[in-house]
Amino acid sequence: MTFPSAGDRAFLIPSGSGKGTATPVEAVAAGDRCVIMAAASGKPIVVKLNTIAAGNRVIIVPDISGKLVAINLSSGPSWVQQTAAAGWMGRWGLSAVRLSDNSIVLMGGYTSGGATHDVWRSTDNGVSWVQQTAAAGWSVRSGASVVALSDDTIIIMGGDNYGDDNGHSGRRCDVWKSTDKGVNWTLQTASTDWGYRAYMGCVVTSTDAIIITSGIGDGMDRYNDVWTSTNQGVSWTRTVEHGGWATRSQHCMVILPDGSLVIMGGDCTTIGLLNDVWRSINGGLTWTQMTEHAGWWDRRLFAAVALSNGNIIIMGGLDFSYNDVWVSTDNGANWTQDTTVVGWSGRYGFGCVRLLDNSIVVMGGSSTNDVWRYA
Fold first, then answer.
1. What distance in Å separates the CA atoms of residue 278 and residue 331, rounded to the nearest whole number?
2. If pLDDT is split at 50, 70 and 90, which confidence band does 1 have?
3. In Å, how far are 53, 216, 309, 341 from 357, measured between CA atoms?
4. In what order do the strands lie in the sheet with 186-189?
5. Nearest to 225 by CA among 241, 211, 236
6. Which among 246, 371, 253, 349 is positioned nearest to 300, based on CA atoms?
7. Fold of domain 79-374
8. How far apart are CA 122 and CA 131, in angstroms?
9. Per the confidence metrics, is the pTM higher than 0.70?
10. Of 24, 201, 251, 355, which is the most exposed, with the fewest CB atoms less than 10 Å away?
11. Are 366 and 348 in contact (CB under 8 A)?
12. In the predicted model, what is the mean pLDDT of the chain?
């Protein structure tokens, strides 16, 4: 037997002759995950598994040179159910944001019992939820727009309550903010200049400017305007009265890492459902059509997120109740369907956020209360 020096880290494994051989493992750092195997020559070797996440399934095989390598059988992102039944009631038209601590705050929406104004928070990627308040200061609503500012102030705007005869088809025109993760709320304005509307596109810029587009107002009126607030929703300036794109609501808008805005899909009063894509590189002042018809079907009440690399992901929505996922790597000009098996059922009006690690969390929609994560 060959004895290692004092202080060496080593393992003992039979060699090809059957004799125990102490083989130094100084090339393996403390804490490394690895397997010890015998090569064709019988000499023990180390195969490191550090690049493969714990819990994945692996197989060790020789490559073309005969060197043993670890193959990850669980490679690539997948959809994993975080919970089949969250603490909050099943709902659609809910709103959700991700805060800087990677927690998710979910609020409002339309349940079997009507519209709500409860607020919930998850600190474990949607697995468990704590109710922040059962009745926020703002009135019950669905289809509200929500953003989180750089200091984690949450701003909720507009929305509606079907069946609420307030003279404006149930639409809301107020703005509220919370500085304590949704527990308490302060009224910013009771009546915005953009009026009563719901299902707008909404983003926040790196300077905390809030930008909204379109939406549905009194009756079935839809818009193609752009509004901006630089004081947390207290006052608003209409930067564009009529964008180049058709009027719409229940569409999606994302902001990319370069600050450009991308609008997708939605529902137009005169045209019907849409699958066009438009981009603005100057804060919404002017727009360029990226495609008249994206690869995905026309839809509304779907979800979209922008990843840190600039990729845009859209998923779900309503014409039929979709559960497909599409990716664009060129600002919305071209789209490829993600063929990863989607475990969640087709749905619309669901919550969706991108976490700090670029994983995606889908919540509720179509009266469900399950939560799924793509990572």
1. 9
2. very low
3. 14, 34, 11, 20
4. 145-148, 154-157, 175-178, 186-189
5. 241
6. 349
7. Neuraminidase (2.120.10)
8. 9
9. yes
10. 24
11. yes
12. 88
